[in-house]
Structure formats: structure tokens, C-alpha cells
Amino acid sequence: MSKETNKNKNNIKNIFSLLFRKYSFFRVLSYLFVIVAVLSAISVATVKSKKIPVIASLNPVVGQAGDTMVIRGSNFGAIRGTNYVEIGGNRVTASGYLTWAENLIKLTIPGNVQDGLVVVVTKAGKSKPGFFANEAEIPVAVPKNIKTLQPVITEVTPPSGSYGTLLTIRGSDFGTARGESKVVFAANAEESSLGSGQGELAADFDFSTIAASESDYDYEYWSDSEIRVRIPDGAATGSLYVQTEKGKSNLVQEEIKLAAGEKSYLSRKTYILQLNSDIDSIDTKNGTNITLRIPRPVASSWQPMVELTECQPEPVISEYKNTVIHQIWLKKATSKSEKIRFSHNFVVSTYAIQTKINEKAVKPYSQEAKARILFKNAVNPDSLIQSGKEEIKALAKEIITVNGKVEKNPYTMARLVYDYMIQNYKVRDELRKSDASPLDLLKSKSGDAYDMAIFYTSLLRSLEIPSLPIAGILVDSEMKTRAHWWTEFYIEGFGWLPVDISLGMGLPYKSFRPVENDAEFYFGNLDGQHIAFSKGWKEIKQTISQNSKIVYRPKTYALQSIWEESSEGNVNYSSLWNDPIVLGLY
């Protein structure tokens, strides 16, 4: 109890003592009644005045530093005083506010803005949050373009190349920034007749073309008159063009040659997938915010079409860093028996991959290749791939040393590591404990599909071979799904090669078409029954606060550091993430 409260009590006692000495008992009661009534009125007024601020709308939801943010709602206070706004856990400073009124706040988004929650804080407490995404963090920005002319290509150099070759495209009206514009190539994909229903599902998608890849960092420079872009994995000899919001450019022929061999994309399949997640058994002492990040299937040369067709409830953002973002506010009075279901339907098309490599034509990586962001991101260790461990480096070097000579050909090195693991390790059908380390294979020589993919990728990276662990699902001939993991490694001038070491070891699996030799087939080839949800490890920032509670789901169909995040406070709930199921195949 504060000193001020004690002082007030003593003052009241002194007043009562004086009243009893000077006046009659009934007069004292009258005075007492008046005092109680006044204190009650003050108390009621105080309670009424302490109304929690409420955010009704937030604009923009996606923006950048310097933009004006408008927050509408109630109980903000007529003047700002000590009240403030937080964006992504950072308090907006006094100079950032343009307007502060009871129902309206205008502010300038600060330079250090991060993705995260937006809350209004007053003496009465914090509002329920809104969500803000920093446009600078989104791979595809959406700038304004005042151009009214369609783009025109006047020159493309060189006129031929292989995957990863840097092209210079000159012309006009490309736009001063790329935004949603793209460079489109002919696709190296088999033309297949569409099965029943597939034509309708894929009606708006052009499988005969492929755009340069953002995930492979193909775009290196973009201006109104010049573009520098790399030939994407999966392109074929044919016409290329520039696509902007104003339309398509003229077509220019580009020849694609793969000196190291051949790569084919065959037998397209189109799946309808459903992902369901449930939250129930909710027990919260205070209102709390929960953010869910639902993985989306990832687009690639062999998985070109990914579309979210149904989503309940409506997400905050339907596509952000390969996730669907949901936010819910669990009220204090939420019933424990209440269940909240999040349902997503995706249409995904995949190809089988077949490769033929001329091993002698594969060269060590050039200095230009090593300088690429793609190379660095796929070689450096991360939270998942412990390729910097000395025991990993030592084993990898031992494997690639043949008759006293250290192999330098990256394709040959990858094959030597693959063959070594096939001969010396055993894959288990059941998954080990979620916290078991793949590095256990150094001693146990036995592990599950997750262990094998992570361990193989770690060995390749320790040899400076760009490689990525792939997480997704495997669909068997009975349309049953299971979480699965495999690897892709990169060959300069040839692109990504798939390696499913677990299936190569003989992991039980009912494929649509029997494979004659698993060990031979699953090095460099892949069937169309693999659906990928992530390529490489995805580190996600906490958006609510550094002290928020997070949920990480190891050994699942996506490799991301955060699946759920809940605000601080006393909150208990149960979440169930179901594996994706196949509703249809066309």
C-alpha cells in the first residue's frame, strides 16, 4: 500500500474524530453518508474513464518507413500525453505522431520499422493488436508505375547460355523498379494432355513458360532501359519476354544449352491438397493474441503451379515469405470447449525429374558462381545444417579421398557421399524422437528419412557444394501422405539435382510406377509424388515480442523456426496440426 493511500486514510480518521466531538451522532451519520456517496461517484467515474483502447482499422497493413499510418478506433485519449503506439515491439517516438485524437491516430512509420503487431497503449492498458508487414521485407515490392507504354526489348546478350548464365536485356519502358514485373522464358516441360478436371484447375496457368526465380536470386538489376537476369533452372530454348503491369514486350529468341547433360520434366500431376489446423481447450486468464504461420507449397521449376483456392477463416496475409498468416484474439471469456479450425485448400502441379549427366563435363565452381548469393546461402551452415562441425568435415573429406587423391568434381563428390551412405547407413521407417540430432548417425549409422536428408546435406555443404534440404510430403499409390525430406544440390550451368537418399536406401513406399533400381534412380531423378513445402531452413522473426511464446514443430513437412506465437500472459490452449491430405489427383 502506498504512502499516499495511508495518508488519505489518516485524514479521514481525523475528520470522523472531529465530527463526533462537535456534533450529534445523527449529524455524523449524515456527513458520513455524503462522504461515501462522493467517494463512490469518484470511483465509478474513474472506472468508466479507464477504457481500454480499441483498434477498429489499420492502414496500411503493408507499408514502409516514411509512409503515413492511420489508426482508427476508440478510447485513444483526446491528447497523447504519455500514450503511445508500438509497431513490431518498438515504440514510436514523440516526433512521429501527426495527429492524436480520441478516435484517430496518424503517424509516420519510423525508419527502424519491423514486421509485427501494432498496439495502442494508454494508462488504461493495451489495445488488441493489428498486424503490419514491412514492404521492404517482402520479396516482391509493389511500386507505383506511371508508365503507359508496353515494354520493348531491343537486345539480349548473350543470345545463348545455360542455367545461371547472366543475361543483359536492353530496351525501354521496363519500369524504374521491378515490382511485380518479371522476365519470362520458355519452359523445359513435357506437353501432356490434361486429364479429367485438370484443364479446369489449371485454366489460368501457362505451363509452357517459366519466370526467372526470386528464390534463386536470378534478378540482379532492373531499370527502365536495362535488366540483368540469370537464365532460370527449368528454362528451354525459345522466346523470352518482359512482363510488366502494362503488358508483354516483344518476343526474343534465346538458346539454352546444358553442356553437362540433359534435364527433363515429365508426367505432370495436379493435386488438390487440404491442410487443417485446430485450436481448442482454451484457458486464458487474460485476452491473448495467437499468430499462426501456415506453410504454403513452394514454387519451383518442377513444382510450377501453387494456388491457394480456399481459406477459412480469412487470413491476415495470404502469402508472406511462403506462409499464410492468421491472427486470432482469444478473449478472457473464451469457452474451453470452443474449437477454432483453420482450413486451407491448395492446387499444386508437379513434374517428375529425369537427368542425364556427362560427369566429365562438370567443372569445379567458378569464382563468379561462388560470388552469387545463391551459392553463399546454400553453402554456409545454419541452425539446421551443421556443416561446420569438424567431425562432419573430416568424414566428408575421407569419403571423397580415393586412392590418396581428393576429388574436385562436385557431381562426383556428391555421388561418392551418396554411395557411401547407401552402403554404410540404414534408414528406419519410423521417425526417431523429435529432438534427436541427425549427427547421431556418426555413431549409430541408423536414422530416419529426416536424419538422412539433413546429414547428407551437411556433408555436401562441408565440401562447399551448394545444397538445400527439402521438406514436404510423399504421396503413395493409395493417396496416403507422410512427411518426407530429401535434398537438392546445385551444379553450375546445369541447375539443381534432386537426391532422395532415404528412398535410395529402400525406405518402404508405394509409388505409382515401380522403380527398377532405387539406389540408381533417386540420385538425380525424382518422381512426381513429392510435394515440397520448403527449400532450405527458414528462420522466422518473433512478431509479437521477444518474450512471446513460440511453437516449433520439428520433423514435419516444412522447415521453419516458428509455427505458432502467442503473446505474454497466462494462456493455455491445445493446437493440432494435421498432415496435408490429398482430396484429388488429376
UniProtKB/TrEMBL annotation:
Manganese keyword on record: no
Enumerate the spans annotated as Transglutaminase-like domain.
441-503
Native organism is Treponema ruminis
Q: What is the lineage of its organism?
A: Bacteria, Pseudomonadati, Spirochaetota, Spirochaetia, Spirochaetales
Write down what this protein is called: Transglutaminase-like putative cysteine protease
Q: Which Pfam families match?
A: TIG, Transglut_core
- InterPro entries for this protein: Ig-like_fold, Ig_E-set, IPT_dom, Papain-like_cys_pep_sf, Transglutaminase-like
Q: Where are the transmembrane segments?
A: 28-47
- Superkingdom: Bacteria
- Which is one GO molecular function term here? peptidase activity
The alphabetized UniProt keywords are: Hydrolase, Membrane, Protease, Transmembrane, Transmembrane helix
Can you cite a GO biological process for this protein? proteolysis
